[in-house]
Amino acid sequence: MYEMLSQDHAKQAQILRKVCEDAVSFLEQRPSRTVAPFYQEQTLRHLPQQGMGAEAARKLFSEDYLPWIPASSGGRYFGYVIGGVTPAALAGDWYTSLYDQNAFGHPGTVDRQIEAETLQLIRDLLDLPKDFFGVFVSGATTSAMTAMVCARQWAAGQTGHSASEEGLYGLERPDVASGLTHGANYKALSMAGIGRKVHALPLLPGREAVDPAALEAYLADRDPKKPLIYIANMGTASSGDHDDLNAIAELKKKYNFWLHVDGAFGGMMACSPKYAGLFKGLAEADSITMDTHKWLNVPYDGAVILCRHPDLQYQSFTNALSASGAVPNQASHYHMTPEGSRRLRALPVWFTLLAYGKEGYADLCERNVALCEYYGQKVEASPYFRLLNQVRGNVVCFTLNLPEDRIAQSDIQEILDKLQAEGVTYSNMGSFYGKPALRVCLTNWMTEPADVDAAFASMENCSKAVFDRIRP
Ligand SMILES: Cc1ncc(COP(=O)(O)O)c(C=O)c1O
After folding, report:
1. What is the rounded CA–CA span in Å between residue 246 and residue 109?
2. What is the DSSP code (8-state) at residue 28?
3. Residue 67 pLDDT
4. CA 30, 32, 35, 37 torsion-angle sign
5. Are residues 195 and 163 located together in one domain of the fold?
6. 208 CA distance to ligand 1 middle (Å)
7. How remote is the CA of residue 226 from the centroid of ligand 1, in Å?
8. In sequence order, which residues have a C-beta less than 8 Å from that of residue 346 and are 6 or more positions away?
């Protein structure tokens, strides 16, 4: 055995103890850490001829990189849609690496049981019927791609074809429509060979939710023989808005279309008794995307694809030579995902869902939404800002309280750069009705009112000079 590897093998327990010490000190110091430090790229190092061993690698990492690791898993990181990590999820994730299972999902294996059971926990969380088959993938983009591949198989089947057997080249393209589509879905459509064109339907005034009457008019007006994929939103990135899934579920009784719900983060709202009534229609979807690394507060990376057409999923993703017919009983999980070998991503989810249950997750969701409403109230009360969205979820979208035509994208960016330099919080640029906007998104179990107070004070502080400079 290579000498350095042999030495590390002998010191395995010591190495792990040090990791544990580092973990505890990182978690303890996280609240006072700069939320998102700028990192100046360095020259790339080359592979050493002789290895340095785990301890020297650890030392190098802690000197060269650790100081620039953002506290993005802490309670004041409000950019993009970045989830935190619950204590149980972190433990589950460590065990995932420790046991290092390839989650093929073969019958007679414990990984198959854990993944299937975790999907049952997720169905329970979202109140979904058992006929939703689910598997873990790396993220919402891959989940959406999996859904679109299943949808194209369904679309081809409408005219007696199989996209997975024949390819797409002789087939008519299905229509794709949505109120507002996250970029991940364009990517998913492209990867699925359907192409990025999405018919954009009218939105409700001042919102990012589709106008259900306009959707119905569109459905009534089109050739019903032409397959249609409708991509519904459950949580838009810029304003956290959601389509009226209950109305869309009603339309599904009258019209034939594939309903995909992008619930990458907003899917979580179905777990709260306070909001669940708004999302009953989720149960009527053909496919649902939900990340676990966002609002579920599980470490990167992970998402689920929930699809109630396992036969189509099998036809699309099996390794078998012929891909027609029904999914065989006991098909291994790798026949149902774009991946072959994969990490047991279910395990940290299993840990956290069992640790905190439906109540714990409803509380997390409701607290984040309440804190967003609180942030929104602060925005409304400030002379510097104008609220752009009614807070319906975990996103606040706002801009400077100035005439729209005076606010340039560079002004918003200047505020965000100052905010990042101040280091108290982090936010990123949103776009609301095509205009650049400030946005904050709360997806972390740790966020408390004091974090919102500090983050808002910093946002206001960083905006004043820009406001004064550009006001008429
Ligand atoms: C609504 C929505 N859909 C899809 C995605 C893509 O998610 P991922 O980066 O996990 O692929 C995001 C990411 O923020 C999102 O907000």
Report:
1. 39
2. H
3. 94
4. negative
5. yes
6. 16
7. 28
8. 103, 111, 114, 115, 117, 118, 119, 136
Which pairing describes strands 385-387 and 395-400: parallel, antiparallel, or unpaired?
antiparallel
Specify whether the CB–CB gap between 466 and 414 falls below 8 A. Answer: yes
At 73 the pLDDT is: 96
Task: Provide the token pair at 418.
Answer: 């100052």
- Structural domain for 254, as ranges: 89-352
Q: Please, are residues 320 and 165 in contact by the beta-carbon 8 Å criterion?
A: no
Q: Which of 180, 288, 291, 429 to mutate for ligand 1's pocket (most ligand atoms within 8 Å of CB)?
A: 291
Residue 29 domain flag: yes
CATH of the domain at 138: 3.40.640.10
Tens of pLDDT, residue by residue over 362-398, are 999 999 999 999 999 999 999 999 999 999 999 999 9
Percentage of residues in the chain with pLDDT exceeding 70? Answer: 100
pTM (predicted TM-score): 0.97
Summarised one tens digit per residue, pLDDT across range 126-169 is: 999 999 999 999 999 999 999 999 999 999 999 999 999 999 99
Residue nearest to atom 7 of ligand 1 (CA): 140
* Whether residue 172 sits in one domain with residue 238: yes
The answer to the question of residue 159 being in a domain is: yes
| Long-range contact set of residues 216-219: C-beta below 8 Å, sequence gap at least 24 | 216/251, 218/177, 219/251, 219/254, 219/255, 219/257
Confidence band of 449 (pLDDT split at 50, 70, 90): very high
Residues 61 and 135 in one domain: no
Query: Does the residue 378 lie in any domain?
Result: no
pLDDT-based confidence at residue 323 (cuts at 50, 70, 90) = confident
81 CA closest ligand 1 atom index: 14
Atom from ligand 1 closest to the CA of residue 263? 1
- Whether 322 shows a pLDDT value over 90: the answer reads no
Closest CA to 427 of 404, 448, 451, 405: 451
Query: Are residues 429 and 413 in contact, defined by beta-carbon separation less than 8 angstroms?
Result: yes
CB 289 within 8 A of CB 264: yes
Closest ligand 1 atom to 235 CA: 1
